[in-house]
Amino acid sequence: MSPWATVQDDSQLTGRPLVVPGAGPYGGDLEIPEPLVTGGKKWADVDRDICMHAERFPTRRWWLAFGVALALLGVLVVSLAVLIYSGMGVVGVNHPVGWGTFIINFVFWIGIGHAGTLISAVLYLFRQPWRTGINRAAEAMTIFAVACAGIFPIIHLGRAWFAYWLVPYPNARGPLWVNFTSPLAWDIFAISTYALVSIAFWYLGLLPDLATVRDRATHPWRRRLYNALSFGWTGSQRMWRHYEAAYMILAGLATPLVFSVHTIVSFDFATSVMPGWHTTIFPPYFVIGAIFSGFAMVITLMTFMRGYFGMKNYITTNHMEAMAKILMFTGMMVGFAYTTEFFMAWYSGSEWEGFVFKNRAFGPYGWAYAIMFTCNAIVPQLFWWKKLRRHTWVLFTVSILVNVGMWFERYVIVVTSLHRDYLPSSWGMYSLTFWDYSILIGSFGLFFTLFLLFVRVLPVVAISEVKGVMDPRVARSAPTDSGAAAVTAGAAPGA
Amino acid sequence: MNGRRKLVRLLVLVGLVAATGALAWTLSNARQGYEPRQPISFRHTRMPGAPDWQVTDAGEVVNAGGYDIPCVYCHTMPYKGRHSTVPSTAVCMNCHQSVGLGKEWVLRMQEYWERGQPIPWVKVHDLPDFVYYDHSAHLNARDASGALKLAEHDAEGRPMVACQHCHGDVAAMEIVSVQNPFNMQWCLDCHRKPEMDGGTDCVVCHR
Amino acid sequence: MRPTDPHERPEPTALDRREFLRLGGTLAAASALATTGCQPPQEATIPFHDMPESLADGLGRARFYRTVLAGSPVQVTTREGRPILVAPPPDDRSGRGVALRHQAAIMDLYDPDRARHPLAVRRGQGAPVPASWAAIETEAIDRLRRAGSRAVLLTGPLASPGLAAAIAALGERTGLRHVAWSPLAADAAARAWEHAFGEPRPARPRLDRAAVILGLGAEFLDRPEEGFEPEFAARRVPDAEAGMSRFIQLEGRLTLTGASADERLRVRDSELAAVAAGLAHELVVGRGLGPLAGDPEVAAALAPFPLATVAERAGLDAARLGAIADELQAGAGRALVVAGGSASSTAQGPALELAALLLNETLGAFAAGLFESAAAPATGTAGALAALAAELRDGKVEALFIAGANPVYDAPAALDFATALEAVPFVLSLADRLDETSRYADYLAPASHPFECWGDAALPRGLFAVQQPVVQPLHDTRGLLDLLVGWGAALGDPAASAAVAAAAAALATPPEPAAAMPAPSPSPAYHYLRAEWAARLALDPASPAFRTAWEETLREGAWQGPAPAPLPGTFAPGAAALLAGLPPPATGLELQLYPHLALGDGRSANNGWLQEFPDPITRISWGGALSLAPRRFDEMGLANGDLLLVDAGHAQVVAPAYRHAGMHYDQVALPLGLGRTACGVIGNGTGPDAWPLRQLAGDQIVAAGLPVTIRRAGGHEALAFAQGSDVIDRDRRPIVPFTTRSAWESDPRAGTEQQEGGPSAWPAHDYPAERWAMAIDLSRCNGCGKCVLGCQAENNVPVVGRLGIIEGREMSWMRIDRYYDAPRRDGRWGAEVWDGPLAVVEEPQTLFEPMLCQHCANAPCETVCPFIATTHSADGLNQQIYNRCVGTRYCANNCPFKVRRFNFWEYSTARESALFRWLEPRLSRHADLNARAPMQMKNNPEVTVRSRGVMEKCSFCIQRIMAARAAATRAGRSGQRLPDGAVVPACLEACPTGAIVFGDLNDPGSAVARLAAQPRAMRLLAAIGVEPSISYLTKVRNDKA
Amino acid sequence: MMPTSTRGLLGHFCTPDEALAAAARVRDAGYRHFDFLTPFPVHGMEEAMGQKRSWIPWVTGVLAICGILFALGLQYWAMVFDWPLNHGGKPFNAWPAFIPITFEAMVFWAALGSAVVAVIAGKRDTIPQPPPLLVETGATVDRFVLWISATDPRWEPAEVEAFVRSLGANGVRFVDVSGGNDA
Fold this sequence. Notes:
Radius of gyration of chain A: 25 Å
Distance between the termini of chain A: 41 Å
Radius of gyration of chain C: 31 Å
Largest sheet of chain C: 7 strands, mixed
CATH class of chain A: Mainly Alpha
CATH superfamily of chain A: Formate dehydrogenase/DMSO reductase domain
Order of helices and strands of chain A: EEHHHHHHHHHHHHHHHH
Structural class of chain A: mainly alpha
Largest sheet of chain A: 2 strands, antiparallel
Largest interface: A-D, 88 and 78 residues
Distance between the termini of chain C: 99 Å
Number of strands of chain A: 2
Strand content of chain A: under 5%
CATH class of the largest domain in chain C: Alpha Beta
Oligomer: heterotetramer
CATH architecture of chain A: Up-down Bundle
Number of helices of chain C: 34
Shape of chain C: globular
CATH topology of the largest domain in chain C: Alpha-Beta Plaits
Number of domains of chain C: 4
Helix content of chain A: 55-70%
CATH architecture of the largest domain in chain C: 2-Layer Sandwich
Number of strands of chain C: 44
């Protein structure tokens, strides 16, 4: 009997190894890690628990959440219509602060979009089995966050309807290509690559699970649909062979991609000549910030998944604690970056640079700096205490605060560097208008609408991967001649 | 999958790509071939070119050819200013006080003249408003040796008016139409020729 | 549907051949549809019906006319008959200058709020209704005939001899009396001259001849129309041929003039006369200098003003005043004292002016030829207006004709002109709009803009200029001279009758389009003026000689008449007695009312360009504020824009507060010309109306030195600042080259020190032909801002409105940064320097820096634009292509000079949709400011009118470069380099001081190449390696006494 | 040509270890046309079944190089050759600025290409009669299903059945699916 079978409930997890007295090879105690799936689940239970949300009629909770998200999405649509119809003047950007909430939101969402692929790819490469509980939802989060991020570079254009000029396609203008030395051109390539590779990675992971959903389907159309979506997945070892290879390669490619994308986003700032932007620390600083904010968002979402969708047995407190540790670690890295920036500004001897940082912390936007520093560098330090790491509400609150702080980090970077640069004559202030707020809030509407739809139609946990980390001794079902005991749905083939 | 289906799929794909390309190409060359109808059916074929006197069946001696009228007789400005200008009705009347009286289109023109109204010609060659084209800068441009860049002879050395480089042989057009793409690519094709040295800075045309 | 069995592959639902063909056909049809749908819309090209021969070489090109505008000669550029630009005429020798108001006259001309036809105003009883010219003229002539000497014509200042003659002729016929009223007339100087020399005709100081200039509240740079700028600037460069001049200014408010001073002492207005007298006492009595030394009358008059006493009372350091006296003494024969400006409108004004004359006499300025005689300016006096108001009230005036004056708005409140007008049976207003005064009239006979009608002007140095129309009247309006000549003819004046007859004849003759000569004008004023002119030239009006002379005058803009009478006799020592009766200075706080630099007396207040023009010192646009000394401001705990109540006893005005550097502690100041209520939708209600604060003392208007109290009125009104921060610490931010003369003499590179950039990683691009560059000599620049308006007019720069400025959406391509130099702090650095510490702003050293696109060789903006909307041209220009710009604003962010301007809104079109207006009320305002007919006529067709969402910036006037290229090509010089001076950007054209030089850096002989090679030249921000094309030449402060 | 029917033998196991052991024995017994259907990848199954390593990494490598060449070529051609423009004083061939896009293009080509090829390869890399999709076997739930195809050279129904039963498989049965196995 596996010791894992004793853990019947998420609340029994302690975050410490299970001790089996006297089971060691030399008679000592055997310490084994706690199970990643609790509740003594069998493989067949996994299918049911996870596919359930995609199979039954949505709950009132889901409708409620979806309604709110849809309303927010409506806010976004109306706001964008007003923006395009009236002009860029409706939002707060001005001279000298030519970039405002749109770029802030863009970097914010792109940052959030980094944790999913990172969790999937990096943790996969590092063989961290606990990733299996959260990677699917985290990857979905990535894609939706990138989708949210993707609208901002387009709508922030003065003439958004010409955004397609950014694509280097043959044309009758000379041909006039794009300026490949511009970081914004790099952005286009980086973000589209990131979005598509993330989708590919996510979808590749979904293939076996789509087949599971298909096999559980009762309605023939549903079966056909999911069969088409799974490209006719059978689970044949000959498929698994290439699948595994490709999955590993994608993980290997996605990892540097994650780093490169936020590095390139940071180049938008780092390659400029603006003091406060023109700094070599930006790429690592941005990447760490992105991971930080992404993990915070994953914690936020996973808290919902655990509470709303009853995923506690798959996304256990141990998962949450692991993420809390990462959050604390990256929070310290971010804090280190903040401090290093100041040191570099002082050490460089550049007056412009020195002034910008002084102004950042103590100037008119000092309040934003304070929010940023507190939320990002100080609040995560709570996770030095195990109790707090494992406390749902503390985790949830901190994760929200971290994303507030990360939004303000981008606010501080974008606004404080621009509002007081080289010539004091051109200094100015920046403030948000109604539409700035509505578009920011609306982008959350887009994000949650997509996420809730995802929860509704696709397996939110990587079923096949979770099965792989379960103890067969617990998860197996009794040998019967008729096949899987748990499968009640599904018609016989080939009738 | 059998070969026939493969072929059909391939053809569909190729067809889609080709259609998209063709659509894009036509869109970027939307001006070429534009041939609007004018309020007065003025025939450029009758203006330049040598006279061709013929005897009709009725025994009249008529000119079936041109009248040796150079382009700049009517379009007065191309060597002097940015626009080549469309002639004022008064210029038409210079001749049509005494020539072609009673012909349908001449009568129409004279109606305009008598009403004191300008003739609402339809613009044939039309560049976007953000292109600042200067006829005089092109027609007067000379290379280092002092020769006109827009040569007044064709490749075989036969004389031709410099206007033809862009506008085509208007003298041969019953209805004037746009002979060239008149898009940026086409402008640049010429500007980039080493012997033209037209400059490819944006501000040469846009400002 | 796909099978679930992976190896079973039944017929896929692919297209069969027929479907393929069907689909292909649909696609082809769709593309054909799209193609035809995307063909260019059919556009008409409308030729002339009969093209005038005069256009034969000018179609599509600018034409230039010289004319005169409000007494200043100007050059007007027209395109296809539309005036689009006003610039100072090249080689002008009239002694007058072009002010911002003249440059912005284009906007006045196309002002949509002008009256477009005659109106029966009916004294404001009900809405005005249209009237006919015939009815108005009939009644006017009838009234003139009947009223006799009980008819009065009230005009503004009259610079036109022709108009004066016509008025005089009418007066002879009917007894019509003429009263001129100019609210800003400075008659203190005339009084002083009358006292001292017996003739109220002030001579004109020649600043270019003086080595030492002492300004006693002088405002010669604040009044550009007086034309002092070029002469002053000529000796402001350290290497000036005649030597650099030294300018010491004593004033209470930091003025544009004071900002150029080498040394500046804060003396409040009412104290200035005493301080001037103190200096005179020191020189004449104390040191026995000059012809007046030993004169008992002078000595007696100066007796109360020993320097020490005066200095103590004014709170000045006596030693510093003594040093000034030393300098004046040492510079005797080359030293000049200039008084005037707002300080002369104090009760002590005449005494101040007289003290200045006394000093000049003592220093031998008159004898040394530092003054030139000038024609007497025609100004009205407050006394005449007061008398008229009394007559009106007493019912002694039967008919009042008001032309070019707006007394209801700008007359002293005590006269209560509005009530006085009610007592007049017939009031005819000849204004260009239904202004404050016209509302009390019976009729409004709309006046033409000076660009639409004939006129003339007498200029200070004896020149006579013709005001020739440059456009047909846009509306049903008439010129004043046309009207008066018509009335004169109706009343039997022979000269007027002849003119009207000639005009009628011209009208009857059909114009000959092909004629070589322009047709005679059907304007009576034209014929009247020609007759006048013929008399002036003593030529037969019909003779060819006259015709030649007349045409030459029109072409050259002016005709040199006899020089003005020489300077009036000698200084009468008895005049010094005026000092004895010097009223005591105000106790406590005193108020100065000064004319708004751009708006002047406010007659052009409905002009968006002028309203939006930021004051060079306060940097406030769209309105004005009460200037307080920084220390007082801080003591009161104010913030810029806090509303204050100014109480002058007889009137109270609420105005926002402004922390004005260099202000005297006991003085506050408020601009005049604001707060109009009936000028039009653009200017109505901008800023506080300060006119009521002026006081009528006898026949003199006191506009400065007024004792006032101020207190918080509660509330706040955001000021539309066009600048972010004021103070720079050049140790930290060496962005303005500045040094002193002594430092410059020991090191000509002094002031240009900055951190050098590292080596470039790349080889530089080469510029095979021209390389356009600019040099701006900060020593010459006085910050007047005419380059800004010139640029705005030339380049179709929109007006963004007050809210636009507050939100930071200004569009001007050129700006003049004004900084106060923080003293060097030996490496210590306090953040407070940015907040304008008292030590810096109490006695500020003002630095002006015209800022425009630097056309950097390594332009950071170009690198970051992904759309290739901005790149570098082969001749060194940073090109901005609007049609390619999609508006990432990345370039503006990455511009270290912040000269790029983004179109946050569609300024150039009026979008009428109700939804739109509901969503964005601001947009209606933009349409009001930029897009109401006939405003669009102001646009320069050579420059794209930008749509929303695109970035724009200075192009070095690429349209002028291309025009010069095309002209060279036409002249057979295609491919050759343009000669120096072939391209004149609009800012350079507008600059009165020659501070801006433009040309080809690759041509070693060009002016710009020589300047750029000077040790004084500095290219900004070398540390970041952007390699600007603009060289700034160090501003040198003359610290050598 | 497509087979009109699929014939073979099914048997399933309850744990991956049993499946691995069975796979090794089937391989050692000399069967070639056999396959395993598993709900999740079983480590070691490749070796147990005697498969070679997947060739997908080679595809990735080639595509990565293609991506690099494409991006570098496009950028160099557009910026240096086709229309060189002076952007901020940089040389036309500002190669450091080309690196980011080159990297992204490499990842783009390699990653998407690998994913697509892997999916296609998984469906192509098969035995003549691959196992039919039999939902009730629970191959996507918790069963590790062994399939030996009738096309195997060593196919001998009775022998095969006995062999599979000897492996400890459950639910051993012959399957004969004819025609379109349309779900």
